[in-house]
Amino acid sequence: MPVRLAFSLLPYRIAPAGLRPDLAPPLPELLGKVAEIGFSGVPAEVPAGMAEVDYLSVLSDFGLGCAPGYFQADFADAATLEESMAAAEAIAQSHARLGLDRIFIAAAFPDPARFTAPAQGAAASADWLAATITGLRQVCRAMTAQGVTPCLHPHVGSAIETEAEIEAALAAIEPDLLLLGPDIGHLAWAGVDPVAFVARHRARIAALHLKDMRKAVAQEGTAASASYGEITWNGLWATPGRGDLDCDGVLEALTGFDGWIVAEIDIPDVDTVEKMAQAAFNWAAPRLGLTAPSQVRT
Fold this sequence. Notes:
Order of helices and strands: EEEHEHEEHEHHEHEHHEEHHEHEH
Number of helices: 12
Largest sheet: 4 strands, parallel
Shape: globular
CATH class: Alpha Beta
Helix content: 40-55%
């Protein structure tokens, strides 16, 4: 499959107090906006009560495809691991019915200690990491048994946050059970060089979240002991090309990539989601060889 560019609907559903799905316009209206801009799809998120075939039909009405969705769980919690495995199996089955063979997977967010002190490896312990990796491996087995391979999605504020934790998980779980689906913004916030990381793990990367980041916001937030929410709502995230990350270098390191890249800028850095989405498309699509001149509006 050639590289395809999707747009995450998250910024329509997020508020300072947390996720607010009720704030978003109806799904057909959202899909119309995404399609008009020029994106190829949206991440899989089948509405409750809707069959996968009907969801695909709605996407098809707008000429959109289905990018990998997202699953998270507290893999270190032995008391809920069986429940997490059942949920993972169910969403993997749903992805398979959608024609997908990959899904983003992350440790549960938010972890209280790491939400309070983000991107610092707060409350780290060898036992917690070992339990997280053990549980993650079991969940990966449940998913791959359904023909869907999870892609590790390191996330600030979760149990797999720092470079050492990411590398430990990748070393402990073989690639046929766990691929890699990083978010370059979360990598950079945690102190990981996104370009070097992507180049090092290029063969294992099967999906990617693309965003930019303002390093000064992260540094100032850490110095002020600000929380995850305070830092992100203070302007941490940016449309690619508007922040401090070498987004061009990341795409160069991905040369030959043949999966989904998802533009996910959680909080718009301009006054509307549509303007931010258009700017993200205008930046990314030409670099990925996806843009006809008539598709790009300024």
